[in-house]
Amino acid sequence: MNQIDSSIRASAPGTLMLLGEHAVLHGSRALVLAVDKRIRVELTPLDEPQLEIESALGQYRAPIDQRHADATFSFILAAFEHCYTAFAVEAGISPGTGVRLQVESDFSHLVGLGSSAAVTVATLAVLNRWLGQSPNSDQLFEQARAVMLRVQGRGSGADLAAAIEGGMVAYHQSGERQKLAPLPSIGLYYCGYKLKTPLVLERVAEAAEQLPLLYQHLYQLMAECAEQACEAAGQGDWTLLGRLMNYYQGLMDALGVNDAKLSQMIYQLRGDSLVQGAKISGSGLGDCVISLGQPQAVELPDRIPVQVASLGLRLD
Amino acid sequence: MNQIDSSIRASAPGTLMLLGEHAVLHGSRALVLAVDKRIRVELTPLDEPQLEIESALGQYRAPIDQRHADATFSFILAAFEHCYTAFAVEAGISPGTGVRLQVESDFSHLVGLGSSAAVTVATLAVLNRWLGQSPNSDQLFEQARAVMLRVQGRGSGADLAAAIEGGMVAYHQSGERQKLAPLPSIGLYYCGYKLKTPLVLERVAEAAEQLPLLYQHLYQLMAECAEQACEAAGQGDWTLLGRLMNYYQGLMDALGVNDAKLSQMIYQLRGDSLVQGAKISGSGLGDCVISLGQPQAVELPDRIPVQVASLGLRLD
Fold first, then answer.
1. Least CB-CB distance to B267: which of A218, A252, A259?
2. Which residue among A210, A220, A263 places its CB closest to the CB of B243?
3. How is residue A71 annotated by DSSP?
4. Alpha-carbon distance B169 to B312, whole Å?
5. Measured between alpha carbons, how far is A193 from A136 in angstroms, rounded to an integer?
6. Which top-level group of life is the source organism from (chains A, B) (predicted)?
């Protein structure tokens, strides 16, 4: 079959925040990690002018020139919009053809492993190849950021950077990113619920309005901590990085994004001798906590079995 | 009996920290409260050259000119030392006479209600009267601070200020203190264990050595928060004061003086609709948590039944 021969495959890793969430939106650097759970996207050219999307979350099918919105596939559709509009004519794509995008994921989109970032990056990669483009990683990052902003209006882009680069990345929202080695060993635990990041940001913004100076200075302190954490991470000084994680967690608590359950999990993890530090991963008020070092003696439910992995975006 | 006729009685309130602990040692203001549980000291002149101390904690008896150290009564003995050395000759105290000091307390010295401060202030008050001195509150505060420094080497003096003034006091370790109204309603809960303040300070100092700049800036932020809290407290804006307490608690967590149990109690208290804010009271790593507002729906064990009370040192 010609179509199978010409299919294009890409995959990108899930990502998670080690340190710097919230402050990264205010100009700080952040440490973000790519993990060994991935999202794969396969593009198959079709002989009919259709856009089809298939994943475990559902199906989408529309005439390629009459695409409709679909919340389930908002990132894929925005990525398609971005690339197809820009490059289809230039690539000489015949009006009578289309594509099928098949998505497979190693992890649920319900836990905070950056599924939107991974699927966006992998989708952009296969679309660029199909449309004859060979963007470098900076260009791909800018495409991905445009897609993210189109869908959700804001975001640091840190998860996009790690999905592209893999491993551990020191990221600034200017787009500047530095891949660091060695990679840390981590534990990741889901707390059982999750408030969507935009809602968390809204609550923080409300609190910040009431204490503007205290929040401004808090972000400055988070930025200082994140800067020291990037240095410690680059040197593989896990003891220092763990201390900085604990410190940052206190600042997250002051920010108002900690809660009883997250706090309980974090203190349990810190009680393990193999854990150098523990904190919320991500915007808070739910989702995951991350430990630097894998606990040995402490058993927490809902462990998400991930490890930091060096492999970023891969285009087959 | 002549001796009973000439006895002198004073009492001082227990105290607790509402906000500003740790930072007050670095030049910040603090909010400290006097409560309705008191320590009473009665001085009875004796016809023999003895110093006697009696309390629920034990007894002490020594020739007045051959006093020995006793850890149980270190603050009382230092207060005696301070006053007797300074004023006995001037007061014309006969070499053949002595005193008995009887101490009664409404609360255990094991919970963080500032028993040392209360007993120091009340003891100094009766000794001054016996020795013909009439110090004003500034002078008494300086005497009390000298006693405290003699016994434990350091301390902010905030609890001494509240034990003298009563009510809610905005305190600076320069000795500057401002009595505020109205008085807040509070809940106080003991966590079941307590690390002595000097040991807590030692641990914080160790952590600060490793992250000097982050700790310096953390203290600055605590000071800013405390300053806003003093203003909110003076205006009786409990909603704002509660928010500032929660914020300060996050900074205490970053400082490294929070733990699993304290955190759990604090988040339980914050879950009550009548609680405006909740945090550690005192140096942390044990002891008490304090809520602004008395919880209605949440039941925590080990409630210490205290209320803020306006009455400070009282000399009968």
1. A259
2. A210
3. G
4. 11
5. 37
6. Bacteria
pLDDT of residue A3: 38
CA B255 to CA B249: how far, in whole Å?
10
Give residues with Cβ within 8 angstroms of B235, minimum separation 6.
Answer: none
Phi-psi domain of B111 (left: phi exceeds 0; alpha: psi -120 through 50; beta: other)? beta
Distance CA A293, CA B99 (A): 62
Kindly write down the DSSP assignment for every residue of A87-140, as one continuous string. HHHHHT--TT-EEEEEEEESS-TTSSS-HHHHHHHHHHHHHHHHTT----HHHH
Q: Calculate the alpha carbon distances from A133 to A84, A162, A314, B271 in Å.
A: 11, 22, 15, 54
Give the C-alpha distances (Å, rounded to integers) separating A73 from A81, A142, A252.
12, 20, 31
**Residue A160 in contact with residue A22, Cβ under 8 Å?**
no
Residues of B in contact with A207 (CB under 8 A): 243
pLDDT at B208 over 60: yes
Q: What is the dihedral of CA A47, A53, A56, A58, to 10 degrees?
A: -110
Determine contact, residues A75/A150, Cβ cutoff 8 Å: no
- Restricting to A residues 160-219, those with a Cβ less than 8 Å away from any Cβ of B are 207, 210-211, 213-214, 217-218
Best mutation target, A215, A267, A300, to test chain B (most B CBs within 10 A): A267
CB pairs under 8 A between A and B: 91
* Best residue in A213, A219, A221, A246 for a mutation probing chain B (most B CBs within 10 Å): A221
How far the first Cα of chain A sits from its last, in Å, is 19
Taking only the tens place, the pLDDT of each residue in B25-84 is 999 999 999 999 999 999 999 999 999 999 999 999 999 999 999 999 999 999 999 999
Contact B240 A207 (CB under 8 A): no
What's the half-sphere exposure (Cβ side, CA atoms, 13 Å) at A290? 31
ipTM of the complex as predicted: 0.93
Please identify among residues 262-291 of chain A the ones whose CB lies closer than 8 Å to any CB of chain B. 263-264, 267-268, 271
Q: Is the pLDDT of residue A103 over 50?
A: yes
Domains defined along chain B, listed by start: 2-182 (3.30.230.10), 186-292 (3.30.70.890)
How far out from the chain centre does Cα A236 lie? 22
CA B253 – CA A253 distance, rounded (Å): 8
- Which H/E stretch holds residue A178? strand A177-180
